[in-house]
## 1
Amino acid sequence: MNPRLTRSQQKTICSQLGNVRLQLLYKASVHGFTGAAFHQRCDNRCPTVSVGYNASGFVFGGCTKQPFSQSGQYVHDDRAFLFTFSGEKLLKYPVTSPAYAVRMISNSGPYFGEALVLVNASQAVVYNNPGNYYSFNAAEVHGNDLNLTECEVYQVEDMPEYENPWRLVVWENEKRMELMESIKSYKPTINSVSQVRVLLIGPVGAGKSSFFNSINSVFRGHVTSQAIAGCSATSLTTQFRTYSLKAGRGGKPLPIILCDTMGLEESTGAGLDVDDVVSILKGHLPDRYQFNPSAPLHSEAHGYRKSSGLKDKIHCVAYVVDGCKVSIMPTKLEEKLDAIRRKVNLMGIPQLVLMTKVDEACPFVSQDIRNVYRSGYIKEMMQEVSARIGVPLSCIVPVKNYSEELELDPNCDILLLSAVIQMLRFADNYFDDVSDQKSNIELKEQ
């Protein structure tokens, strides 16, 4: 049961309520537009946020700290409020008569003081009467469209916080420098390979290009933007790009190349083609190859590298997932990721997940990035990523890319550098497998 309320809208509502999250209890299109269905799912649950949606595009509702019931009585709530969204902005209308904030009616849904009722008289409609209990402009709240296309009720839950982090991280500048030196001095265990090639795969807007820019920024010593990144409904990356990182301006190349691809899109014939992934994994694609989503790459295409060595192949795959959109990942997108993961598994290439935008997903982490492993919410999101993509929790690394900052944050750097270290460790596993296979072949030939 996926929430219709976007992650951004949920975050905006939660900002009015403290360090909390929303858990979907009732969805009228699933459970029924009836008072009975609403009360069965929502009675004795509190605090709650009730949301109505209409065909005119309005998203509106109310919040109360009191538990719902079927008593027929008014209930006092001095903190209740109604709301509507104007774009991403929340317009709030506090209760003006707290003694009549909420009424408990058996054959209706959420009932806010005779002023606003969702699923009124067990119908997919709104009852609307601005007045003494709540003062608001009806046209502003719902555009005077009183027919509901959906109604949802969410329980407001305190965000779990761990006293001790569930993953240990040393948040000190010495550790940051140690991680940077480890990356600079790394050498692949196979002599024919000088740089580990990591392929970044993920939905449009998840932060693949931004991850490269962020790692590049750490080693440059200031925020920089070499790869094209930004907000768009379709992929801003249209070419296959291989980005070699350098240790400072004019410095030596680092032993890792980040390979950027088109973003995954849910519709067929759009975004990165699943069949192109195999060509990338095998090292057939040259840098700056122009993707054609409607026609996968073939061996006669211009620039196709027919003969590729181990140094050209991908040694680790990193799926990049937006932490704000984990729970609303479209099924088609999930199916594409699953198809890719199966192909990567067949080739024996290690895989990990970068979960980006953790600060946007969790207010507790937004306060201080060092709370990332103390946040129960982030752990839940990582567990959901694990289930959806099919990788162990130990293979998921939360990060915060640089997007609006002008100066580096040592704590963000530590998360980003730790992710790179994991990539190098996973690549070592790949090289070990290659060496073992070579040794087995040599033994058989003796």
## 2
Amino acid sequence: MSKNKQTAGHKGAYSSQRKKEGEVRSYIRYRCGLTNTIQDVLNQRPGWVEVKDEGDWDFNWCDVGWLRENFDHSYMEEHVRICHFRNHYELTRKNLMVKNLKRYRKNLEREAGRLEAAKCDFFPRTFELPSEYHIFVEEFKRSPGSTWIMKPVARSQGKGIFLFRKLKDIIDWRKDGTRSEEQRDEAQVESYVAQRYIENPYLIAGRKFDLRVYVLVTSYIPLKAWLHRDGFARFSNTRFSLNSIDDQYVHLTNVAVQKTAPDYDPEKGCKWLMQQLRCYLTAKHGFETVQTLFKEIDNIFIRSLLSVQKTIINDKHCFELYGYDILLDQDLKPWLIEVNASPSLTASSQEDYDLKYRLLEDTLHIVDMEGRYHLTFDKLQKLLGRGWRIFYVDIVVQNILFCFSLTGKEKRVGGFDLMWNDGPVYTDVGLEAMGCSCLVANTHLGCVNDRQKQLQQLLKPFPGQKRT
């Protein structure tokens, strides 16, 4: 690594250490490596100031490349936050995700029995090539004529993906021992996963779709995870058929792929909001069936996070906003396709922009930089001296100063609901209100997101002032 890169990461780490003794800063310095919706959210957040290049920072929304080059060379003060865990790839690389899920399922079967282990049967049969080529061939021969999908383990946006039904189509991934001498002399092929293709996807208007859902993890030890109520279904632009496995517009729902279709209409787009999808499914299949479906989707989030809990390097400076991709089959069984460490924050429409803006605002509320930095003014110092948990947010509405007060015990912040806090989290108002002792999970994916009303409950006037 170059000396300059080391210095850049190192300098940001010492952001507060070099503050003069007793100095109080009334703003938060942020760095952002992206130029899409997150940049807009950060720019418009009151009391936040962007720093460029090698400037000191308190908060960094970086890409995974920056993390890889700089994280290990950065010393971070207590309050500093960064948007990835050091080895996030244990969950977000396709091969490692499956490896960790397989290990977790095996441990569950040994410790809790087959019924408990069966709760992890939500990912298709998957093999890493070329390392598991021989094992894959055995499985391939058990179901001749089946369709498989090949995916590079570390690429995104549908790049490098193709479907196949014949072994000759993946000859490049044969294990070295079976390749010719000329092939062995060539450069090693890129690692891929071969995954059993879901041949019976649930269709709407004849089109395939998958779900993009957002999960925020603020800690792995203990595991603390939030589920956002908003999300969307991404549709293919072409009616589904298995007759042509070479047509990406039929089989891949990634927006990056679909928007290149000749008949793609940018005004119409190819997304439904999660609320629209939930209403559609409820109207067609009934409330109880859809409740069961979404409960099974919740199970995917929790089990996948638990599968890497002991593997992820937990760091109090880190948080992660994951983008989960879930596919439904015609039996309404959800399948985990992949987990993204850098879900796209680029909007494809105004509706999409609004969703992502709300999502990112709520993420910053939970990360709570204002509270962690303890911006103390004379009045606040007196309040803190009395044991108040209160922090300053530089918002002035009609000359009235407000405080955004979190206790750390919230089960909801904006559009996020706390679904796991070192154990399952249950909703405050559930079936027990109707005389039933059943516990209801605190998850509301696709439900009404009245986030503004909820945030107003957290936004309190400064002591001595009146709310307007």
## 3
Amino acid sequence: MAFARRPRAPRLLGRLLGPRRGACARTMASPRCFALELPGCTLAHFAVGHDAAAAPLEPRAAALLGPPGRSYSLCVPLAPGAGCAARVRAARLHQRLRDQLRRGPLQRCQLRRLLCYCPGGGAGGVQPGFLLHDPRDSPDTRGALLALLGTYREAPRPRLGEFVGDPRRQVWQCLWELQDGHGWREVGRERVVPAPEPALHPVVPDLPSSGVFPTREAARAVLEACTAFIPEARAVLDLVDQCPEQVQKGKFPVIAIEGLDATGKTTVTQSVSETLKAVLLKSPPSCIGQWRKIFDDEPTIIRRAFYSLGNYIVASEIARESTKSPVIVDRYWHSTASYAIATEVSGGLQHLPPAHHPIYQWPRDLLKPDLVLLLTVSPKERMHRIEGRGMEKTREEAELETDNIFRQNWKPFWP
């Protein structure tokens, strides 16, 4: 089941290091649009609720949605304009659902990323989910899905749709709903038709509230919503609150060195710091590094809030140290932002936000370095170095290694 995304970090880091400038069902407006991740680094966009006389589906999408197999959509409800607490709940529900779909009888099916969104874009209009495709159309698959979703007792519950074909080779989506005292019932059926590809990937408007946080307070609000179930979140917040909200760089230069693991950052940062007699800092800083594994197992919104706040702690260290000597920083904001974008934007490199999009702008309240360097090596050499060192792979490194789509599209942004 090839579902893990390989973060497109080199391409994204290149963009970020370029010229710096200062209810899936009836709760959404009809027609509802979907973005389905297809093999080969592409997305298929389709909609339900359109005129039945519309054009047929794109062949590869039709093959996944229609017979001879059977597919199901599972979307996590997220109301437009939802706050941090609702976003965190939805993200954890999405991760729990993904893990459960990969186990038991449902692991025989193919799992693909699916987004339900409102046409026209805008923040707060995306509901994350999955397409579960059963090539054999086993009668047990629907039963296993209904049993699984029946274990979700509290709102929000994942929304279930089932795709069926008719004799005219049209595809329809049937919506299922758990009704108190009556069990599961089919509550609607609508034609599935192609939809135009939006100008921007549907998740891009949501990125400032789900991973690429524009301010310290935006990231802080996410961890504040996590304190009830992640005790370490409170400890991180306490450290952040000890840092001044606005800091100024001293008279000495500050250089940030970016790159994936095994690109030579350790060697370069140590060499440069020794040559310049500079202080060497790392992000995340050591004071929160002990909790890194805990947050790495959480959904993107929580993981990126943790790393974002780490940058603000490092910024206060930079401000202090740069009054006395040059400062070298091993990773900083660019890594945090690029991993968030790569994780959330499905499909290939062509779906990334265009160069100079506001999402790449430096946070207005975060101290800026004077110079940023991006280190790159070939994917083959990088993996050879990791294996030779016996390095423990992070969750994101494991995704980098296993995602064939990204390996086929590995193109450093800089020539």
## 4
Amino acid sequence: MGAPPGYRPSAWVHLLHQLPRADFHLRPVPSGFAPRDQEYQQALLLVTALAGLGLGLTLIFIAVYLIRFCCCRPPEPPGAKSPPPGGGCVTWSCIAALLVGCAGIGIGFYGNSETSDGVSQLNSALLHANHTLSTIDDLVLETVDRLGEAVRTELTTLEEVLAERTELVAAARGARRQAEAVAQQLQGLAFWQGVSLSPVRVAEDVSFVEEYRWLAYVLLLLLVLLVFLFTLLGLAKQSKWLVVVMTAMSFLVLVLSWGSMGLEAATAVGLSDFCSNPDTYVLNLTQEETGLSSDILNYYFLCNQAVSNPFQQRLTLSQRALANIHSQLQGLEREAVPQFSTAQKLLLSLEEMLNVTEGNFHQLVALLHCRSLHKDYGVALRGLCEDALEGLLFLMLFSLLSAGALATSLCSLPRAWALFPPSDDYEDTDDDDPFNPQESKRFVQWQSSI
């Protein structure tokens, strides 16, 4: 298969494509992209299930740690007011984990932007390809209408004017037959006319899904950021109620982080399978949806010297017919105008029509060449297989960092809770005054324990 210009599967595509796949019965599944096969769908669902397994193991670890902390902690002696030993280290480890998680949020925003850029390249390529196909159809329709109008009016009238000269009538009829032949040949060039698959509709569907995907990830990133910031604020202010609320929110965000990681992993694996050999799947899908011949699809998707232009014969015949019409009109202008003055206006109108037709024909030749549509195909592949895939990998890294930071904070918050001064349990607003001597003494004791 011929790869589009500038596109080569990246190292990440090769790496993800080589990962083993299995169905629900743990039977090996080929890594070829086959989204309609049940076994392949099960393999991607199993990749998503691995994230669920990671979530389950994380929750089990957190539960075991909290049970051990709550139930296996040695009893404090009566009247002891000093904080538990080692608690300050746990607090700082929690803060460090949250700061790492905040850095992961920046990675997530970058990954979300890269994924959106890749999808935007895909949409731009689809819209440009639709413009090319629409222009071809419009040019063919316009040229055929011009030729048909010339046959019905100017050429028919010209035959009536030249009725006295049999040889001139034969020349006019020859031009008429050539014009009809050109119109018939050009009608076969509008290969996309009547096709139900519309690139614009595909672009609109992709844009609709991408808009909600982008918005969902922005909301998730902002939610994780708020949880991290308010947890840090609760630790800094030693606010027990804020820590309790953020602990509950951390469990929710932990589930969302692992869930997003599962979706990202499955999408990245499926996209790598597609990008490793996209031509076969795209050719088969396009032929199934459009019903076009394999010769036309191979020419535009592969665009190499091994594949000939399927419209070359029609273009050659049309060019010859236009040249014949031009020579016949020149002959009629030399022979008929001196004898039939009314024929001059008809011949000038036909010459003008022929010039416009030749201009449209040369434009059609350029548009029908595979370079333009094949370039759009390459842009779409680079958007999906480079930018979008890279963005998914960064989103996976964000999910991993946020899940690790949340798990660390959930294990550390109970021990940090024990360091909080008991004044947080009262509603006296003066307790928060930094100039309060009692509050200052407690703050100094907490700082010395850290």
